[in-house]
Design a protein that fits this description.
Elements: E1 3-6, E2 15-16, E3 28-38, E4 42-43, E5 49-56, E6 65-72, E7 75-83, E8 86-97, E9 112-123, E10 126-131, E11 137-141, E12 155-157, E13 160-163, H1 164-178, E14 198-213, E15 216-222, H2 255-258, E16 267-272, E17 289-300, E18 303-308, E19 313-315, H3 322-336, H4 354-357, E20 361-363, H5 373-377, E21 384-396, E22 411-418, E23 421-428, H6 429-436, H7 442-453, E24 456-457, E25 463-464, E26 474-482, E27 492-497, E28 499-501
Parallel strand pairs: 1-13, 2-3, 8-10, 16-18
Antiparallel strand pairs: 3-7, 3-9, 3-19, 4-7, 5-6, 7-8, 9-10, 9-11, 11-12, 14-15, 14-17, 15-16, 17-18, 17-19, 20-28, 21-22, 21-26, 22-23, 24-25, 26-27
Length: 505
């Protein structure tokens, strides 16, 4: 770490405030400011150095030399800085270095960066700074330092000289940051219950980061609300060969991690558009709230997920932020409703009227409160009984002639979802008799199943297969059980019981 302290000020040294940047276009300046937002490293195109290697051909009698050029692309990241003079929008800084390890590894949004010898440019009428690897340098300092004498940077690039005025500047920014809040409207940061496909800003709590596959990371983000249900476009006949996934990851989260997550409110998975190394995720601290800027929201197989693109950023978000306090209050209000007779706190927020919305099925446990599927998955006992509000999004088999085994007993698998999770639940033997009210015939069983699945039928009972399905919310009873005593948790399954599809209009 190459940091030198200088007590005397040089006449040619000038520390620029961000508001004065417009007057120094095309000049090299020094800046100390707060990191408001930052993106992840990406490879540049055409900004790297090249090296020329020459050699003489062995078979060339004239001794002629040949050569080739080897290009090495730089790594780049973009920071957005603010200070007390320019904090509404801030100023972008594009940093170029020879590798990702040399780029600023900001420990937390709100930390302080010292930039030396950066060049100010303009782009689309906005002033920005450019950090060149051969002539610029930087140092990163903690932004929440309580010690007025803490001027030891946690990362340095090239040589940085720390003067008395630099230390005074760092202290002033730390004190200013304590009471600073970025002006942001709630409409600029929709809750998960308000999202649509496209690019959005999100404010949420980071629950976990997980490498599902090598260099394939997911960030789990939550704000206490439910994502909207999506139409299911897959063909029911394809379920046996191409089943709807239970989760976006190739493997489910380990149970010990799953049990630490909230059971009410959707958990959004955010993937990364570009490969990312683990040390770049150190800033995503579990249990902390963060603002994600320009996240792309998409739907896959009916499941919401986000993509952190090359244009996405993370923003400094103190725990006292107004948006965060608003989300926490709404969640606390929602949870407090659990103790009432009508436990809306664990109901999907898309259900406006409980009695009318749950009219397709009837269960025999009206006194039992509804739970979420995350409650089911994280229950402390292997065998238990639950009542949940779900959508039935798939069924295997779907062909009417295969609903029963050769012995004439019901045997099928349903895919259930709510805003918190998806599970498979079996319908077996007498539970099928309860669900379909005995054996009313193949056509009637399929008609009832279609009501669960949201399948559109014409007046003559002809099924419209090419139309997206929007299954209704229904109340079901679920029991968990295991099939192997040697691995009770690994062999845990679920089945529907004490649930009946009522006759429709």
């Amino acid at each position: 770490m190459s940091v030198r302290l200088r007590n005397s000020n040089r006449n040619d040294y000038k520390l620029l405030r961000l508001r004065d940047a417009h007057s120094c276009i095309n000049q090299r300046v020094n800046i100390i400011a707060i990191v408001l937002e930052f993106g992840l490293p990406k490879t540049t195109r055409g900004t790297g150095n090249f090296h020329f290697m020459s050699f003489t051909g062995n078979d060339d009698k004239k001794g002629r030399s040949y050569g080739c050029r080897f290009y090495f692309n730089d790594q780049c990241c973009t920071l957005r800085l603010i200070d007390e003079t320019h904090h509404q929008i801030g100023m972008a800084v594009n940093i170029f270095t020879e590798n990702a390890e040399s780029l600023p590894h900001v420990a937390a949004a709100g930390d302080i960066i010292q930039l030396c010898n950066v060049t100010l440019r303009t782009h689309i009428k906005e002033v920005n700074a450019v950090f060149y690897k051969n002539s610029s340098s930087f140092a990163l300092y903690r932004g929440n330092g309580d010690d007025d004498d803490d001027f030891v940077p946690y990362q340095v690039y090239s040589k940085v000289f720390l003067r008395d005025e630099d230390k005074m500047r760092i202290n002033m920014l730390r004190k200013w940051l304590v009471n600073f809040q970025i002006p942001a409207e709630s409409s600029d940061f929709p809750m998960l219950r308000e999202i649509k496909e496209g690019h959005f800003n999100l404010a949420g709590k980071i629950l976990h980061c997980w490498e599902a596959l090598k260099d394939n990371w997911f960030v789990y983000v939550w704000d206490g609300t439910d994502t909207p249900p999506n139409a299911i476009t897959s063909m029911l006949e394809d379920e046996i060969n191409h089943p709807l996934p239970l989760q976006l990851e190739s493997l489910p989260l380990p149970r010990d991690v799953l049990c630490t997550l909230p059971t009410v409110g959707s958990i959004l998975r955010i993937a990364f558009e570009l490969p990312i190394e683990k040390n770049h995720l150190n800033v995503l601290k579990s249990g902390k709230w963060a603002q994600f800027i320009n996240i792309r929201l998409k739907v896959y197989a009916g499941l919401w997920y986000g993509v952190f693109t090359s244009h996405s950023k993370l923003r400094h978000t103190p725990n006292e932020d107004r948006l965060i306090a608003e989300r926490q209050r709404l969640y606390d209000d929602r949870i407090s409703l659990k103790s009432r007779n009508m436990p809306i706190g664990s109901m999907p927020q898309s259900i406006d009227s409980l009695p009318e919305s749950l009219c397709i099925t009837k269960v025999n446990h009206d006194h039992v409160r509804h739970l979420t599927l995350m409650d089911v998955l994280t229950h402390s006992e292997v065998t238990a009984k639950f009542k949940c509000v779900v959508r039935v999004v798939a069924a295997v088999p779907y062909q009417g002639e295969k609903f029963c085994t050769p012995a004439g007993k019901y045997m099928m698998r349903l895919t259930l979802e709510d805003p918190t999770a998806r599970i498979h639940a079996f319908v077996v033997d007498e539970d099928g008799e309860t669900l379909f009210d005995g054996y009313p015939g193949t056509a009637n069983v399929k008609r009832k199943l279609n009501r669960l699945l949201g399948v559109t039928e014409c007046d003559d009972s002809i099924v419209v297969n090419d139309r997206p399905r929007n299954p209704a919310w229904v109340s079901v009873c679920i029991k968990s059980y295991y099939v192997s005593k040697s691995d009770v948790w690994g062999s845990r399954n679920f089945r529907i019981f004490d649930t009946k599809i009522v006759d429709g209009p």
